[in-house]
Input
Amino acid sequence: MDILTIDDLSFGWRKQPVFSHAFLKIEQPGLYGLVAPNGSGKTTLLNLISSLLQPQAGKISLYGGLNTAKNVFDHVAFLQDNSVLYPYLSGREHINFVADTHHIPRTAIAPIADKLEMTSYLDKRVRHYSLGMKQRLLLAMALVVDRPLMLLDEPLNGLDPTSLIIVREALNQAKADGQTALISSHNLDELMRVTRDIFFVVDHALRFEHLAADETAEQRYAALFGVHDK
Amino acid sequence: MRTLIGFEWRRLHRSGFAWGLPVLAIVLVGLFFWFSQVGVDQYRQELLNHIQSNDEILSQLIGGYRQTIADDLETADRKAEAKKDMALAVPIGDALDAQQQAVEDRSTPRYLRAVIAANTRTIAFDNALHRVLLQDHHTLTAQTKLYQTMLARGWALEDTHYTTQPVGFLVSWQSWLAQPLAVLLGVALLSTTWVTALFTNNADLMATTVQPWRRWALANWFWAVLSWLAFLTLSNAAGWLAGQWLGTPLLSGTTPWHAIVPGTGQSYWIVWVQEIGISLLWFIPMYGILLLVTTYAEKWGRQR
Amino acid sequence: MRKIMTFIRFEFLKRRRVWPVGIVALLITISLAVGFGVQKHNQSVFVQDYSTQLKKRYPNENSLGRSELTSFQKSEAAYHDWFFKSVAVNVVLNGQGTREIPGFGVRLYARTASGALSDAFARTYDQYRYMRQKNITPMFPDSLVIVPVAGDLDKLSDTDKQWVMRNNPHFYVQALPFLWSLLQSNGVVALLLAFGVLLSGGQLAKELAHKRAHSHWLTLQDEPFPAQVGIQFGMMLTTMIQVVFVPLLAVTLGIGLLFGFGDGRYPVFSYQNPDGFGSKEAIMPLSQYLTNTLSLLFLLTVFLTLVMIILSMLLRNGWLTILGTILVVGLSLITPPIPGLPLTYFHLNDIVTGIAQEQAGSDALQAPAVFINLGWWCVGLLLLIILITEWRRIVHRLQRIHLASQKSPASL
Output
């Protein structure tokens, strides 16, 4: 059973097309990158997969079923950008809520918080968090629900080297546990350290590329989008 | 400073206020005009009710006199007195009938004349009785004087609260906009772009870009005052047009700018200008206070 | 059900962090209690002043006029008795000559044209007879029931109007009458509603701000948008009730326990049209007045909550939503009685007592008609909310149908 299938997807904002007859298929669990220039539709794609946006044409399937709200809730954990966080609530209150709605015991929170080294600030209000702290909280919220597919929108943004290592380890652990993650990122070097399987958004379509051992993500990006080293 | 003023204008413009404010002005004026139309109709009905209630009291009195005159047991003196009083009371009733007819025919001059006649006769009647029976004489005298002036100058009779004639409507509308509560709502509304920027990351950008910080507040203040002025201008213009096209007098005639607003001794023009001044005088410091309070609140919040 | 409870708990958690609603409700309750204290104080000041006035007017021990002073100084019950008789004499004489009869009250007759207040006398007399029949204690000190809308003051000069109103005050110094006095004031009602709007108006709009960031996140937690709107409606309504009704009821309860609740059968002036042949003055028991007024206030609270939801969905800005709704409340203060327009219904006292119906000359402003009409407005707003909520889905479905119809000829 395919994990994620996008079939002949078309979507646009008013008269500006974002995707036109796009296809994507993920059959094997693992980590997959999602790369495109700014404004090409990475977040839009993740919103479409999670059913927050509806395509004008085409079909998106998750684990053999359409991406209905129920199916998304059962199979997907989505790390969105940090505007979803309530500044006046603490990190713990966010994770507690997520755990409760997914019927996950709250005892599951502590190990994840430990793993992401965020126990010390978990009870502070989000308005006092730095960008990296917010990113780790968002990742914790995605990990705690323990869904087979994770959609991660720029999880590596604003992370310091220590945080990068922590997040990288968490992602590798997820892979080892048989989970799948679709990770959008601009940090190509860091992305390459966790996966060499990358989807590029090119000309309103989705293109899968497996990077060869001697190839970097940046080289492939340059080749696809016409950026050359000086 | 010019750069900041330009920046604040673009923020105001892009946030939709540039078109939102005229729309709001037109909607609010439209609503108030509708309320005024209803108010004018109801006031006309009130006039009729008032005349009828006076008429009823008078009818009772006249009925009493008739009884006295017809009663065989009454003395000749009392009958003669009753006849005399009735002769004074009946013309008041006639004047009240004339008032009613004038309201139904929508004629201001005829109504004013009828009220003056009724007032004069009421005072004469009470004087003959040596007591104030029907209505307070000071009120009657003041009203008679005002109505004589209105009649002589050809001014229309209008309710002071609700009128759809352009001049009276603008004065009513503007007097609402001079109320502190209305100004407070205006301040809150126009401070939207300021408040939303101040309590978000925009403030950080401004804090590092604008030195000293108060320049940003001053630029915002400048546009807020101009916007309020624009709102007053637009809403008054819309009110004027509505009055010109759809306004109808309470009875007949028009109210000119130089007519006197009842109870003030000042012309409509002066009162209108004064109300605009009061509105601005409220707005300018109130907005300033809001800028100060929100700035300090933001700084306080930042330290926590 | 468990999930719904999780969502609701989360909303309460968020609200607690944004507004200390309990403290605000407590402050409002204290303010209302202070208002009650002011009434009590004003009552004792008035009693003192009036006593002095009477002594000045009737310095002579043998003066007939001293009967009022004597009863005034004797007891409240004695004064009620004197007042009733005094009003009765005036009603019988129909305002003719009572000014000259000594002993019938300084503030009742002095200075005004003698027939000018005859309607107020007749009304007061009717109410006192009703109270005597039912053994209801009148307010102290007794005053004429003056209804400006009925034209009671029309025959007086401006100075006399002020004088009559100043000298015929009503002091609502027990629980139910005090609640009555609060609900009579459009300003108090508008202020309470404005506080409720201030505390509840922004929440849904904030959820929808920034491309529905919070709202989308909640959708991913299995809280679909219609459920979010439903829960927000419940939260807003709860907040409005906490800010508007809880203080009103708390202050009523507190005053009731300390100073007595008063009589629910107390006569309230109203216009009624029982046989449909035109409205006339009637007496409405206070309990009925309060039930109707609070019910209307509740319906208006629901109406305002629905308005807030619509504005939130259209503007997606908490600040503007609050201002827009407060503007609706503010506009209601200057709205004349217009049948069918909910802004008119904010004048609770005028609607429930039939004054609005009398002013507009329309049966559509009778309280039962207003309840039905306001109910329909709420249903209409609810439908509008459903339409806006489902709008995206409808548009999406239409787009797909449109695209499918464009494709189908080619596939043939």
Observations:
- The mean pLDDT of chain A is 92.
- Residues 4-225 of chain A form a domain with the Rossmann fold fold (CATH 3.40.50.300).
